[in-house]
Structure formats: C-alpha cells, structure tokens
Design a protein that fits this description.
Blueprint: H1 2-10, H2 13-24, H3 30-42, H4 44-65, H5 74-87
Helix pairs in contact: 2-3, 2-4
Amino acid sequence: MLKKLIHIIFLPCSEATLLMEKRNADNISSRENWKLNLHLKICKWCRAYKQKLEILDDILKRKLTREEKVEINNSEIQDFKEKMFRNLDI
C-alpha cells in the first residue's frame, strides 16, 4: 500500500518515463533525478522500461556513430522479450 501511495504522490509512471528520456539527453535537475530514482526503486515496470530504453539508446548510438554494424535478428528480439517477461515475473 505504501509503495502505491509513494508511486502516485511522488511520481507517476507517465512522468517517470519522460524523466528517463530527459536524463538520456542530460537535461535533468538533481530534484528530478532524485524523484526518478525513488520511483525506479518501487516500480518494476519502469525499471523494465529503463532497461529497454538503455538497450535501444546503445543501439542507436552505435548506429549513428557507425562504429559497428548493428543487425538484430528475430531470435535476438525474442530472447530480449523473454528476458523482460522473466524480470517482470509475468
């Protein structure tokens, strides 16, 4: 109950995902960063979103800098989905 209350009062998921994007752009205040970290400690869905966001950002950065050729096949996508579902306890 307390986690849900903190979740709603301090930072809803919709704001947390926006702050994750802002953090990736290095455009986040220390207060926003604190609120986001608190939210991530209690919300498994946003932690999963953050993990996916980090993977996608890494792929895009490599693709844009052309340091290495990035190819993703269907088995890699399926492995990623299965790992995410295991981490979410679904």
